[in-house]
Amino acid sequence: MTTKQITPLGTVLVAIDIAKARNGVLIEFPDRVRRRKLSIHNTRDDHDRLIGFLAETGKTVVCGFEATGNYHRPIAWRLIQAGFDVRLVSSMAAARTREALHNSWDKNDPKDAQVILHMLRIGATQHYHDPLAAGINDVQELSKTHEAISRSKTEILHRIQTHYLPLYFPEIERFRQNSRSDWFFGFLELFPTPASITAMDQTAFIEAAWKVVGRKVSKAALLADIYQTARVSIALPIPLDSPAITMFRMVLAEARSLIRQRDMIEKMADAMLAQSADYQHLRKIPGIGPIDALSIIAEAGDIRRFGHHRQFLKFCGLDLSTHQSGAFRGRTMLSKYGNARLRRTLWLAAQVAIRQRENGFRDKFERYIARDRDNPDLRRKALTAITAKMARVVHAVVKSGSDYRPFFEGPVPGGGTPLRAAVRAPSATL
Question: I need a labelling partner for 213 at 20 to 30 A (CA). Which of 8, 197, 266, 329 fits?
Answer without folding.
Answer: 266
